[in-house]
Design brief:
8% of the residues lie in helices and 52% in strands. It has 188 residues and is mainly beta. A hairpin with a 3-residue loop joins strand 2 and strand 3. The longest helix is centred in the first third of the chain and has 15 residues.
């Protein structure tokens, strides 16, 4: 269960959450490791852990999950070969702090890579080339603007984006064809 920090700003809460994640993850898997994807592209992460079939990574945009099958290697870790299970404990399920809403962005399609742009928990736009399917989750206050777009990185196939708030789909968009874009936005 996540402790409640009444009276703290959202930035202070997120900072505490990031610090907690950094202390839970073994030192060989923190600050500045680079995840290299098998379909090209890479992403620098603040921390990561192996959860079985997925890698959970903490970025400036929040928590992201990637299928291990989509990751070629993680550079900067103790080993850069095959991924090893970490000793970090599994995350506990908890509801967002009072006044916060749980947000999840999802990109799916029959392509294997996408170029995405999304608005993170701090309201900043981030861009990345990611393996599909892709998802990230964070908490946001009512009134926050949400944005997610995904461009098919191949000359064929379909791409979809979807925004979930507290587990309910609130926006979905799909597009099919070469380098097409699916775009979703919502104000909480």
């Amino acid at each position: 269960m996540m402790p409640q920090f009444h009276g703290l700003s959202m930035i202070a809460r997120l900072s505490l959450l990031i610090l907690a994640v950094l202390f839970l993850v073994p030192p060989s898997q923190t600050l500045g490791d680079v995840i290299h994807f098998i379909h090209g592209g890479q992403m620098t992460v603040q921390a990561w852990r192996d959860t079985g079939d997925e890698i959970e990574a903490t970025t400036a945009g929040g928590l992201m999950r990637f299928q291990k099958a989509d990751i070629a290697r993680i550079e900067g870790a103790a080993t850069t070969g095959p991924l090893n299970p970490s000793a970090a404990p599994a995350p506990s399920e908890s509801s967002p702090p009072s006044g916060m809403l749980s947000v999840r962005y999802v990109v799916t399609g029959d392509t294997n890579t996408a170029n995405i742009t999304y608005q993170n928990a701090q309201g900043e736009r981030e861009q990345a080339r990611v393996g599909v399917p892709w998802t990230t989750s964070f908490e946001a206050r009512k009134g926050a603007s949400l944005y997610l777009s995904a461009r098919n990185a191949k000359a064929y196939g379909s791409i979809s984006c979807e925004i979930f708030v507290n587990g309910t789909s609130v926006r979905r968009s799909s597009s099919e064809g070469a380098y097409r874009i699916a775009s979703c936005s919502r104000r909480l």
